[in-house]
Structure to design on (121 residues):
């Protein structure tokens, strides 16, 4: 059995304000943490209320939550030397981000995640 050696949780929020120095964008509101507790909470939500499948980006399935304006992705990957990574994405979209595309955001997050994993491998 392979242990989970790397956990990555991405959270994307829509900005609720406008900074005069830069345009309001989800790109400015990406949080990354390594909390196993958050990952387990998201996995539990994924299994208990998987929502509606929106699409897929490189085998990362995006699901729209049924009870909130959020999108979830959960994925695990084997790493060299008996490592294993677990990654979760939670994308919050509301009235502030009507033009934001969860698929475009997921492309960005998958790319960032793959860059991080490449440094570990």
């Amino acid at each position: 059995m392979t242990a989970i050696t790397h956990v990555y949780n991405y959270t994307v929020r829509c900005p609720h304000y406008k900074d005069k120095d830069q345009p309001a964008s989800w790109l400015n509101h990406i949080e990354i943490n390594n909390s196993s507790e958050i990952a387990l909470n998201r996995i539990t939500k994924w299994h208990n209320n998987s929502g509606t499948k929106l699409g897929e980006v490189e085998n990362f399935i995006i699901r729209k939550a049924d009870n909130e304006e959020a999108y979830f992705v959960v994925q695990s990957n084997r790493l060299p030397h008996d490592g294993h990574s677990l990654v979760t994405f939670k994308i919050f979209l509301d009235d502030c981000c009507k033009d934001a595309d969860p698929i475009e955001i997921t492309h960005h997050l998958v790319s960032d995640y793959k860059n991080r994993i490449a440094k570990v491998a």
User: Anything to note?
Assistant: The helical segments are 36-48, 102-120. The mean pLDDT is 86. The chain has one domain: 6-120. The beta strands are 6-12, 30-33, 52-57, 60-64, 70-79, 83-92.
